[in-house]
Amino acid sequence: MFFQGMLYFDHAATTPVHPEVVKAMLPYFEQIYGNPSGVHRLARQSRQVLEESRERVASCLNVRPEQVVFTSGGTEAANLAIFGLAYRGRHIITTRVEHLAVLQPARELERRGYDVTYLAVDKNGRVHPDQVASCLRYDTALVSVMLANNEVGTLQPVAEIARRCREKEVLLHTDAVQGVGTLDCDFESLGVQALSLSAHKLYGPKGVGALVVAPDLELSPRLLGGGQEGGRRSGTENLAGIVGLARALELALADRVERAARLEKLSEKLYDYLLAIPGVHRTGHPTERHPAIVSVAVEGVAGEALLMELDQAQVAASTGSACSTATLEPSHVLRAMGVPLTRAHGSLRFSLGRSSTEADIMKVARVTRLAVERLRELAPADLRGT
């Protein structure tokens, strides 16, 4: 159902598919539908489109086509990087603020007997390259550090971490799902050996992503079967989705710099409005941050209740809290950053997009202030910190 008048400030969760992406995808549902692995004319036609799309994605990221492995999304891409490269040693390094698509595979490797180092972060959610360098070992198979945090927007010094890893001949994977399309994600400039991305974060379709790997890097496949994607990821390719990914990436890069600058100005204005509300605190790095993510912690309210108030006022946002029927736990990212519980329970993330305007910013700020004031009147003493 389409909700007329809803202000969508949850672009970090997903984005609407760009009309030009939809247009590009449509022929591959009814007209060009052959299986790319087949040998007849329709199959060969699909194969040609698949490889042309791979070339387009590769060009956008400054890599060779054979370095691009198409997946079902960012989660599978991250899993393929972690599990697919773990065979190189018995030790993995990551941070405490990664997406669960990285942390859960790391924990699974621990259960299988691997050593995993979870690096602490500072109060802004950042890890220092020296921390990574000090933990590198002779048997370190892989380091995984995200480019931009999906909850608080903090950027990690990935290029410098990559330099430290190269000195010890250790591979570095970066989860760039929140960065591709908005940040500079030139593969060579970052210096990483693996990069995961997802189409639906950059106005493309859901259910498709990619893992980009260094040339000639051997991956242990997670999905076995038909041997597609050069034997690195079996399963018939989602041709329409891959076409959509390629087009979405091209469109995102066409105006990336200008769009990022506009979003940064808007997000700073939203920060100014929100921080004027008593008991609202900025979370994440103040300057090394994603230009479209605004992350705050609100004292005296529960994040889930605040989201419901915003929803009633036709504002879509998100919270870092994980809610269950019995408990309300603050996000692992905020816990790792040392955010006090009275604030962390009221975590709130607004993520801006192409459609965001200054008028929208002002309305969101006004609605948020009213919601905070109302909920504080109703909040129990333990949430108010009294």
Report on the architecture of this protein.
The protein is α/β, with parallel strands linked by helices. It folds into 2 domains: 19-254, Type I PLP-dependent aspartate aminotransferase-like (Major domain) (Aspartate Aminotransferase, domain 2), CATH 3.40.640; 256-384, Aspartate Aminotransferase, domain 1 (Alpha-Beta Complex). The protein is 41% helix and 15% strand. A 7-stranded mixed β-sheet has the order 2-8-7-6-5-3-4, sandwiched between helices. A hairpin with a 4-residue loop joins strand 12 (322-323) and strand 13 (328-329). Helix 1 (19-25) runs antiparallel to helix 9 (239-254) and helix 11 packs across helix 14. The protein is globular and about 65 Å long. The relative contact order is 0.15. Mean pLDDT is 94; it is low at 321-327.
